[in-house]
């Protein structure tokens, strides 16, 4: 036998008037648990060694129920066990599967040292889910105040698991933030919305327990008379049930006496089979009906009603903060870019840095981040699942774009005029000249093979990231075509889908540049425009196509939301029955992923737009609206004359400023516009090519393969 272990159980205030709802509300913590001896008045629990019988009792009390979500089970586990149940690895393995989730159960069994069961469960759940939103998505709407308190405590458990600022493991002592309260209001009935909003207006530090007391006080104030009437009715029903139970007992006794008199007489034959009590049959039948979910025929005449989506409806959606941040920051950065371009064109300043470049780079970073977060979170689920088709799609398209990028980089400049070869040569020469001036060995920092290998890896990652946005765009394109009734709208939908192809063809020299600049007109060759004019036209075409895609965003998102009615219509063609819970999940799942779809639609658009803006600025292109200054004068900064006529600077400040200016001038001589033209042209072309390739594959899949 192992020596006894001891721990202190966290004191949690318990309201004796709470409703005990096994399906929704938490169960009241029992005074005594198997293996726990409470001594004194400080709730100190001495944990003794658990026998197999005790472990079986723990397993019966702590096992997750069939229709119970993970987050609801965690709240019930805290109320039932708290931090007083200390188990080692062997005892946890004897408990078996408590959560019915293999990942969580295996995480609980790690470690041989004694730890509280609550700490083991929290650590394993943190490893199972990536963020708190994955637990929030399991929450359903609440109707009563007790159910609302349950949802609030579930949010507190999620904050304990995923927040680094919370040190307490008691859900009742977790601070109730404004974000948690807004989610609670969003999940509640509309008649409670105004009262709950007034209940927490300020930013005072209030715990979940404090807000639960406020909710119960509000419920008592509103529903007090009703509860009194209900209590009176319940009392009368209880008395009636007691009388019925007495009559049943008397009837059972009479039947038992009759059976004893019959059994005393000699009986011939094989014997009498045991008959089940009518009360037992009735109780079994009633429990079976209560546990069985409500179902309806699949061919039921069901029509969904439409409702306008407001900002309040989207607050609790998955990835809504990321989408809101991306849109807001992109609009701000675009405005800053336009103002900066107008300032530079009017002031003709060649000594100041164009700050719009920094904003465009930040926009590209924030555009890629949501896609990375979505892809990584989804990929984690794909690789955990045993039969994950999405995992194969990610890996397949990643290798496909890897091979495609290698093939594209082999094509000469006479077909695809990116300018990578000339840009890399100019970069190598600039680096060698810089090293010679510094007295170092003049050798290129990177070979051409390494440079192209880096581009190939980057291209394969971008292609993998744009796989599911392209597939989703193809499905929305088909649904938007069915939704459009006018010929003009259908034409715009087709042009929007083919816009990446138009961008790709702008860099194919034999198709666009050769025919536009030198069109074949019999014996004569009359150029329609100069090379600089063609570059300007290419920039404007990309911006106009991005504006068209932004204009068609509303129709595509509406086409996605119509998938709910499409799923219902498909269900009507099937036979059998479906539970109302599954039907609600099928319809709500479409709206829940609205922000994810919006991110997949807007993020590639933002990447193409701002890579084009970077191409114009860093590549020293022109918009064609105003006359450009001499690019040579812009590139050749004279650091020595920048502060020569600035008497306001002291000696040290002047020397430091001159050194910084010389360093920036050296970097500008290394990273020339010729290099940026090659890199950004290839990046813009590759994003459009990947988006069109995945969209074309998705169009073929949804148009032909799913139908067959």
What does this structure look like?
With 708 residues, this protein is mainly α. The protein folds into two domains: 5-211, no CATH class; 317-434 and 447-705, no CATH class. Helices cover 65% and strands 4% of the residues. A hairpin with a 4-residue loop joins strand 2 (36-39) and strand 3.
How are the secondary structure elements laid out?
Blueprint: E1 5-8, E2 36-39, E3 44-47, H1 52-62, H2 70-80, E4 86-87, H3 89-95, H4 102-108, E5 115-116, H5 117-128, H6 133-136, H7 145-162, H8 178-187, H9 193-199, H10 208-264, H11 278-291, E6 295-297, H12 311-314, H13 320-347, H14 356-384, H15 389-410, H16 420-437, H17 448-465, H18 467-483, H19 487-505, H20 509-517, E7 520-521, E8 524-525, H21 531-551, H22 553-561, H23 563-572, E9 577-579, H24 580-592, H25 594-618, H26 631-635, H27 651-670, H28 673-705
Helix pairs in contact: 2-7, 4-5, 7-8, 7-10, 13-14, 13-25, 14-25, 15-17, 16-28, 18-19, 18-22, 18-25, 18-28, 19-21, 19-28, 21-25, 22-25, 23-24, 25-28
Could you give the count of β-strands?
Answer: 9
Poorly predicted spans: 1-47, 262-277, 281-290, 629-649
Helix content: 55-70%
Tally of distinct domains: 2
Mean pLDDT over the full residue set: 75
Q: Whole-Å distance between the termini?
A: 66 Å
Radius of gyration: 35 Å
Largest sheet, in brief, is: 3 strands, antiparallel
Question: What would you call the structural class?
Answer: mainly alpha
Oligomer: single chain
> Total number of helical segments?
28
């Amino acid at each position: 036998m192992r020596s006894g272990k001891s721990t202190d159980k966290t004191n949690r205030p318990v309201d004796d008037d709470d409703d005990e709802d096994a399906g929704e509300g938490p169960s009241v913590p029992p005074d005594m648990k198997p293996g726990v001896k409470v001594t004194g008045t400080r709730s100190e629990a001495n944990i003794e060694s658990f026998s197999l019988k005790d472990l079986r009792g723990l397993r019966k009390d702590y096992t997750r129920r069939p229709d119970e979500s993970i987050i609801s089970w965690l709240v019930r586990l805290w109320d039932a066990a708290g931090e007083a149940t200390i188990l080692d690895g062997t005892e946890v393995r004897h408990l078996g599967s408590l959560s019915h989730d293999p990942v969580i159960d295996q995480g609980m069994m790690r470690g041989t040292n004694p730890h509280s069961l609550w700490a083991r469960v929290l650590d394993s759940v943190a490893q199972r889910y990536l963020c708190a939103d994955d637990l929030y998505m399991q929450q359903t709407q609440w109707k009563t105040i007790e159910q609302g308190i349950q949802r609030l405590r579930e949010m507190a458990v999620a904050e304990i698991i995923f927040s680094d600022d919370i040190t307490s493991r008691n859900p009742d002592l977790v601070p109730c933030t404004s974000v948690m309260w807004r989610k609670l209001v969003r999940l509640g009935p509309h008649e409670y919305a105004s009262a709950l909003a007034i209940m927490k207006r300020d930013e005072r530090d209030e715990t979940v327990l404090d807000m639960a007391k406020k909710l119960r006080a509000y419920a008592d104030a509103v529903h007090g008379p009703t509860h009194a009437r209900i209590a009176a009715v319940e009392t009368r029903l209880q008395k009636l049930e007691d009388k019925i139970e007495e009559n049943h007992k008397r009837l059972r006794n009479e039947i038992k006496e009759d059976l004893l008199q019959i059994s005393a007489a000699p009986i011939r034959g094989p014997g009498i089979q045991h008959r089940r009590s009518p009360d037992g049959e009735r109780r079994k039948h009633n429990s079976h009906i209560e546990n069985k979910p409500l179902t309806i025929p699949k061919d039921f005449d069901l029509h969904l009603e439409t409702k306008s989506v407001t900002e309040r409806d989207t607050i609790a959606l998955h990835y809504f903060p990321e989408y809101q941040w991306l849109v807001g920051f992109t609009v701000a950065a675009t405005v800053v870019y336009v103002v900066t371009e107008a300032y530079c064109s009017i002031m003709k300043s060649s000594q100041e840095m164009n700050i719009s470049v920094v904003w465009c780079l930040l926009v590209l970073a924030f555009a890629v981040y949501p896609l990375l977060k979505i892809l990584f979170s989804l990929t984690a689920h794909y690789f955990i699942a045993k039969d994950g088709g999405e995992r194969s799609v990610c890996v397949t398209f990643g290798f496909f774009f890897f091979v495609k990028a290698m093939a594209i980089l082999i094509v000469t400049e006479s077909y695809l005029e990116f300018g990578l070869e000339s840009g890399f040569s100019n970069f190598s020469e600039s680096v060698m000249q810089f090293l010679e001036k510094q007295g170092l060995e003049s050798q290129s920092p990177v070979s051409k093979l390494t440079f192209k290998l880096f581009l190939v890896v980057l291209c394969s990652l971008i292609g993998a990231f744009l796989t599911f946005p392209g597939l989703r765009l193809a499905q929305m394109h088909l649904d938007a075509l069915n939704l459009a009734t006018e010929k003009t709208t259908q034409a715009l939908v087709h042009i929007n889908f083919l816009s990446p192809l138009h961008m790709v063809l702008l860099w194919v020299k034999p198709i666009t540049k050769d025919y536009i600049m030198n069109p074949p007109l019999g014996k004569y060759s009359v150029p329609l425009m100069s090379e600089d004019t063609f570059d300007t036209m290419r920039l404007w075409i990309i911006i106009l196509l991005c504006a068209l895609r932004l204009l068609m965003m509303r129709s595509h998102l509406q086409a996605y939301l119509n998938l709910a009615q499409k799923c219902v219509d498909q269900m009507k063609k099937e036979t059998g029955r479906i539970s109302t819970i599954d039907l609600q999940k099928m319809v709500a799942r479409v709206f829940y992923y609205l922000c994810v779809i919006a991110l997949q639609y807007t993020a590639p658009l933002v990447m193409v737009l701002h890579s084009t803006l970077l191409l114009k600025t860093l590549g020293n292109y022109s918009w064609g609206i105003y006359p450009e200054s001499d690019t040579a004068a812009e590139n050749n900064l004279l650091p020595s004359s920048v502060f020569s006529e600035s008497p306001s600077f002291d000696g040290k400040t002047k020397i430091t400023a001159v050194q910084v200016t010389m360093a920036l001038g050296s970097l500008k001589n290394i990273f020339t516009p010729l290099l940026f033209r090659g890199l950004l042209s290839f990046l813009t072309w590759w994003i459009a090519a990947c988006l069109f390739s995945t969209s074309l594959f998705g169009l073929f899949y949804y148009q032909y393969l799913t139908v067959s």
